[in-house]
Amino acid sequence: MKLQPDRADAIAVTAYGPQWIAVNGERHNHSLFITHEGLVQAWSCQTFDQVTAADLKNLSNINTDILLMGCGMTQRFVPQSWLVPLSQQRIGLESMDTAAACRTFNILAGEGRKVAAVLLLPEQL
After folding, report:
1. What is the pTM of this model?
2. Domains in the chain, start-ordered, CATH in brackets?
3. pLDDT at residue 5 above 50?
């Protein structure tokens, strides 16, 4: 699906498919971590089941107000105890499927909000 950002200067997920995500037109074939500030990097976990408490704790020092967790094809939830480091830094976590996380990231980044996203690719069947 092709997406269009509201602001030309905002980082945006410009398209996505079953095994790829494009950010500002650059296609990636692995899970990503992206921020409103323009950071785009591969994320170590490829599936939701690989995510650990330590992975989320490592994200507690980012400059964001909200972290979107794109969980693949379906919405999944991390254990409540894993959210403590994020909440101590006043970072909210919202879990959703990856397609919804891509769209939500674009909306929030386009509004100039401090947002980051973990975008996991759907698991191959």
Report:
1. 0.88
2. 13-119 (3.40.1230.10)
3. no
